[in-house]
Fold:
Amino acid sequence: MTRSLPENRGRSDVRFHTGVREALNDPQIRANFRSAMDGLIHKRRNAFPDPAALERLRLRSERIRANALSRLPELLEQLEQRCTANGIRVHWAETVEQANEIVLGIMRQHDARMLIKGKSMVSEEMGLNTFLEQQGIECLESDLGEFIIQLVGEAPSHIIAPAIHKNRQQVARIFRDKFPDIPYTEDIEQLTRNAREILRKRFYQAPVGLSGVNFAVAETGTLCLVENEGNGRMCTTVPPVHIAVTGIEKVVERLADVPPLLDILVRSATGQPISTYFNMISSPRRPGERDGPKEVHLVLLDNGRSRIYEDPELIATLRCIRCGACMNHCPVYTRVGGHPYLATIPGPIGSVLEPQKAGLDRLGVLPTFSTLCGACGEVCPVRIPLPKLLNRLRYEGVRKGSGALPGAGSRRGRNESLLWGLWRWLHTSPRLYRAAGRLATRLRHLLPNRLGPWTRVRKPPRIAARSLHQLAHDQEFDHE
Structure:
């Protein structure tokens, strides 16, 4: 299941606030997230015992990603050349619609009616499952978290742990309802074994497997995939055809750039010293090799990334390596989870990335979904200045006459503009300002109790009986 994006600002705001209220009023969701986030924060803290070493690694990782982005067009061309020379077929997609059609075309070339998938947030961005199912093609998620939420028709709530909003009792009930022949259990290891037995045979039945890409190495034409369950390796080696989908920003220059990024990615995401599996795919099966796919396809998706790339400040968004640390430490995300965000990627990075892709007129509410406490920026392994970018998007949302981003200025309401225009007019004339102040003090009891979003969570301000100027004047007169 994918999230359907709102068509306009009013609709997105209503859906957003409805989702937030539902999450805040669900004690089970809040308890699940509190427990999961506390654990992830603790593991990350233990994974980086030396603050100085962590900062050196963050600086190095930032430089690697910034260097790759500074040469992005050149490196993408080099990646295509190296992949093609290795036997990987490269496809370019400007939009998600084009990317879906490319995948569908590959499926039809092989008369394939089933696709087995490893975890891929880009495929979520594409809405690939829904699209292919409408074409009569079965899509099966093989990542355990993705498999669980697919069973109940939900979207991922976290980019690393898609089913993090479910506890083991809830998962056990899902398995009981969907697989009544399997004995009921709440034991996590047994639930995992049950899922493995269900999925294992499907790997051999699927003619096509799909995966994401964590890093695409321009130097060697290598696709790197980080995982913990082994399902990614099964998806990319057992089916005769492997399709990898990724955003164009995932490219890095050299193979030597991968180890530091892998080091900080895994420790930031799960607190592990290293992931269980690290896959490096450079070609389809070669003569004499006993396993591996006969065909490998790489789909490079733009979907607004080129536009982000052109902004000298917002380009930092594309440095993200999808570790999820900003979500784990965000006081807002940890209380409501990922579903209220209405977007593929939730949390602070989603609040920055998704409005730039979908438009501020559709998801401009997300940058306001932050306390600006700065925790996300402090833990980001590639030092993305997330609070600064959130403020930039808030500004673009209300900026008059702005054309820098799609939907810019759409959050500038007519009444709000009139009020600020009146405020500016009063403050340019001392005489008008004093007259307005005297009038406001006399009519202070007539002020409304509701002043838009401000009073949803605050008491309305009350104007004092005497202004600061009057108090100062009276004080001066008394001294005389």
The first helix runs from residue 9 to 24. The chain is about 50% helix and 10% strand.
